[in-house]
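Quick question, first post here. What does this chain look like in 3D?
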Amino acid sequence: MENNINNFELLSSDFEEDRYSRLRLIPWWDQERLKNATIMVVGAGAIGNELIKNLALLGIGRILIYDMDAIENTNLTRSVLYRAKDVGRYKAEVAAERATEMNPDVKAKAFIANIIDDVGLGVFRRMNVVLGGLDNREARLSINQSCYKVDKPWIDGAIEALNGFARVFVPGQGACYECTMTETDWMLINKRKSCALLTHEQMEQGKIPTTPTSSSVIAGIQVQEMLKLLHADRHLPTLAGKGYVFNGLTHDSYVVEYQRKEDCMSHDTYEKIVEKPWSARITALKDILLEIRNELGEKAILDFDRDIATTAKCSCGEHKDLFTPVHKLKGNMLVCPKCGKQMTFDSMHSIKGDEDFLDKTPLEIGIPLLHIVGGRVGMQTTYYEFTSDEEEVFAEL
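> Answer (accepted):
Ran it through. Tokens below.
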């Protein structure tokens, strides 16, 4: 009898020492996959907190957290990772700290960055899954396009009051986010874009009412779908091209399947990406163009996936350099320093070789680290990645 008790205590001790033992009881579970996974979380608000909490508990190896906002008092009722002492600090930084506190096996890194302009496609390319907790249609569309370009799945989550939904978008498997967009969605995005030259305060659309309960439900579904995507070879059913809709008032829920649009502009995928020992921070545009022409021919040009504002001009004759994505332009950037009038600006999205700023680096004109650019001859494009930036972006991960 005593031996049986001792054996039981030994087994219990061994079980408690492994924090993932209960997870491994799931027949199809592979904890090593989670340990080796790299997941991006965009948005560290109510949904983002729940996503990050779940990822940390599961032992996800690397978590990249993107958010530009600071913690406010109102976040404390909906965000499990934040404390009163954190008010004023960046959400992403605090969330990353709390994730590693919850589970030392996890490595998390905060990025105070705009997901639309500041994150290179090579970062998306290195993700297993991207998780979104956003209230911004334009950011969702940008994530959707980035993920499809490098053939990566992403899972969108949204909440309002007691309701919410989670949607899974996998390139080649049903609809993407843009396929689901209505005329109203496009109208609101265009309205936001038309305000690009206004102040941040003028752009704010108001706050969305949310609860910690609805964010828990939706983030739980998102992470559960992520787990199934990480175990794709187990052939588990997923919500690819579908959405889970939750009504918290009645606790009704249902799954909706979205119609794939064959002519959708977001379905563009880069078939072949050439990794280059270039750095967006260090390598000059002229050197990139020279190497592209050595490979593709002297008629090749360098293409970007965004419009870059180069120079602002005023009717009084004053001009100044901008070198920033058009999306980032604000009204005060186009006020003439000489006469105070509104200036016009020139923009470009290609380098042809006759520009007067070829000594600049991609980063100096608004191209992010670890991004992917195109070398084009006619209608044929070869895609090149600034692979030397990987070490800087993933430092400490």
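The longest strand covers residues 301-313.
Residues 7-15, 194-206 have pLDDT under 50 and may be disordered.
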